Amino acid sequence: MSAPIEQPTARRSGSPAxxxxxxxxxxxxxxxxxxxxxxxxxxxxxxxxxxxxxxxAGGVLLPIALRFGDRSGDRPRATHWWAAAVxxxxxxxxxxxxIVWAERTIPSGMAGLAIATVPLWMAxxxxxxxxxxxxxxxxxxxxVGFVGAALLVGGNALEGEIDMGGLIxxxxxxxxxxxxxxxxxxxxxxxxxxxxxxxxxxxxxGFFFAVGxxxxxxxxxxxxxxxxxxxxxxxxxxxxxxxxxxTCYLWLLRNARTSLVATYAYVTPxxxxxxxALILDExxxxxxxxxxxxxxxxxxxxxxxxxxxxxxxxxxxxxxxxEPERSLEGVRDP
Length: 334
Known about the structure:
This protein is mainly alpha-helical. 73% of the residues lie in helices and 0% in strands. It is built from 14 helices and no strands. It has helices at 16-41, 46-68, 78-102, 108-115, 118-129, 136-159, 164-184, 193-214, 217-220, 228-255, 258-261, 264-280, 286-310, 322-326. Helix 3 packs antiparallel against helix 7 and helix 5 (118-129) crosses helix 6 (136-159). The radius of gyration is 19 Å and the shape is globular.
């Protein structure tokens, strides 16, 4: 999962080769980060690992974005930092942190399916809390998606093979990320996406370290027992998840059709399940797989409804594309 995005309305057209290369990198990056989190957790305390990840990612990204950004005079102000703190608390700490903690006890692929419900939570918040009317196809998608979520929880509760606390926490993390995504739509943040992202990552690191310290994680860490695999996985989260995946995603938003970019929302959960099975030998019950099919189908309905409503007509490649992109932020980069 990554930081929120503000996008200009104008859209350039990238070459097909460049677009598909960037999209493939996004698919790979955000399908594999769930496994990387699981491996990191093996020998690094989860909150400490999350803090290190965001401190490095944001600490490098923010000064670079400020120095080489695409707009001048857009310096972070106190109001920007306050908004960044709220977004970081809900999305990165509540969302990503919840997933990191949940993956101590649930498979990485299960976490991927749980975080795939973010668009469902966002559509629900839009309708129930904010009172925004939703197209019929979105309502159908919500119904299908939450039936899938109920099956995911209920099926595993009956089978007793998955830690229910971890699974419910993962779903709560998705809801927290969705709430943060809704908030950031109107938050006062720097116009440059990378500047806002860097600020949020740095603030999020503070949350991770503070709560991790209160939880006693600093006393639990034994540097001699930290495995090479966990260190490599943590570096992978920083470089591939937070830098490569996010940068490619930003480029795609400016250079590719919204409907094409939005496909990551239902490709990456499937990828997370496959990668978990291949690398960690994770297995899933029939009810879990069926629940995953329902959730991914629901996300596809909601994404396609948002993209179709805003996709430019004819040969014009310009269009706002803002709302569908914003509504999917929680699915990426866990």
